[in-house]
Amino acid sequence: MNKSDQQTAVLVVSCDNYSDVWSPFFELYSRFWPDCPFNTYLISNTKEYSVPGVKTLLVGEDVSWSDNLKYALTLIQEQYVLIWIDDLFLLQHVDTSLVLEMTNDFIARDGNYLRLNPTIHADLPCNNYFGRVSAGTIYRTSTVMSLWRKSVLSDLLVSGESAWDFEINGTIRSDRFDGFYATKTDSFNVLNGIIKGKWRNCAYRKICTLCTDFNDNRRARLSLTEELLLKIMIFRSKLLNLIPPQYRRKLKSRILGAKHTYKVTTQDGLKHKL
User: Fold this and answer.
1) CATH code of the region 3-192
2) pLDDT tens-digit profile of 110-129?
């Protein structure tokens, strides 16, 4: 048994409002990762979900994304967690041996964070599998398919923050930690099915094809205008990746305005824009 088997858990971050996606999510999860070596947990508010190999963590009232996650972390014993958002549907078989090899290397390096699907790539070389993500890098705490040291993740979570807030503000807070890494290639082939509570039309059709028993129309789908705006955002993100990592934060703030400006409060009580 690898040392990471006992130290690592998969934590599917969800809530009662997304219980309609649990069935297709776990159908594909078990189909494409049947030999997952880690304990798997599902965060829920009050709804239990019974499926072999998955334990539901009931966190009570849906206070916020960060509050739910922080409390859930206290309910598990593992010291590392693979954060898996509930609307990221697995599409291909997982190379378990590769995941274990990277996880073991990450733990041996005393790592704090490993991004397994590098939407934002590492800026410094490290080994054949992943590189270092320097302080000052944009979206340093991206939640998409990310492996965390549990204590560091808990430290960075702030009450009341959404996942989006955490990826922006948590990135700034993470600058005081070393040991942040990102893989060179995607470790999991996943489909982002839901945007702002609505199904992406292409994703809904794909899930209906893969999961023959799934035909749930309770959740709305993106309009054509919303789909177009999403494509523009994805294109903008790809352009941003062409900019050297150390300049991305300031450039993003200038382009998107004060709403997305990073602010840090220093020990002297003064707030600084980054």
Assistant:
1) 3.90.550.10
2) 999 999 998 778 888 999 99
